Amino acid sequence: MLGVNFNFLSLLSDMRSSRARLLELFTDVSCNPEMMKNAADSYFSLLQGFISSLDGSSQESKLRYIQNFKWTDTLQGQVPSAQQDAVFELISMGFNVALWYTKYASRLAGKENITEDEAKEVHRSLKTAAGIFKHLKESHIPKLITPAEKGRDLEARLLEAYVVQCQAEAQEVTIARAIELKHAPGLIAALAYETANFYQKADPLVPLSLPLPLCFSGSAYCYHGQTLLASDKCGEAIRSLQEAEKFYAKAEVLCKEYGETKGPGPTVRPSGHLFFRKLGSLVTNTLEKCQRENGFIYFQKIPTEAPQLELKANYGLVEPVPFEFPPTSAQWTPETLAAFDLTKRPKDDSTKPKAEDAVKPVREPDIKPQKDTGCSVA
């Protein structure tokens, strides 16, 4: 064993075990954010030695292209993507960490009688996921020598959709909290309006004609109508509620179509979501109240045009939690770097995926929430 670099062997062993541990946690229902962060930081700090120069300069590591990595994509079945590039591994593993946070949020949100602390954890997890997706898109996707093909998980357009979707779903938590605490209808209307805009931003990126923008537009008009009624503008309030009713009816149609759509993902039925069901009753009841009040007290003319929503929420807007990968592990030294034999790197043609090399995706646990959370990302 004379001349063996034991630090080198230890580093390789730690990389294998930390990677295996992280993959294991992706499907471990007992995993929590602290466990996930510790495991992710452990692996990423070791992987950084394959990407960044040890001298702190902007030069890349000579090991960046020494290893071939393969990952299956969400919508591509068993046909893997492969790149001989450690940055590809960094982004792919980071993508899965972000996806884990969305699934963790979905599991919590699906519990019966969710507590205030759990609601905060859902909110925080979605913002964390948004921050990771955003960091990958802006700081690491541009570094790939081979950009992701259309429809692959690492396509910049899809990552942007994930960012916007996570922000929108986190804002749903904010709205639910505002409704629960009976905050001013004007604030709720503004938050709903901003959330509808979030979902509308995601639609051109991944056109799915989801009912969510319509649903939150209807919610915005509903609560705006309450604000108008409180200001003795009953006629305008009725017109606003009529607009809410139109949006809700359109959303109902899309909900039915979406629930019957077949695809590789799990079946989500937005029409069964508690928020959606409550909104329908709220719109109907509030409109009937406004019409009664107008018939007894106000006798105001109902405008032909719906009010223009120019709402801006000053509170409760969601921003992604800033994310950075950890620095290179102290286990990396010039001696361990020198121990790598670059003459044995794989051939370039090994990056081309073959049918017989299909990589089976990590099996996800069969976790069924106790109720429909409405979470689309997870």
Automatic annotation (TrEMBL):
InterPro entries, per database record: BRO1_dom, BRO1_sf, BROX
Q: Locate the region Disordered.
A: 341-378
Q: Which residues form the BRO1 domain?
A: 69-378
Q: Name one Pfam family in it.
A: BRO1
Q: Out of the domains of life, which is the source?
A: Eukaryota
Compositionally biased residues, Basic and acidic residues: 342-371
Q: Which family does it belong to?
A: Belongs to the BROX family.
Write the protein's name: BRO1 domain-containing protein BROX
Originating organism: Suricata suricatta (Meerkat)
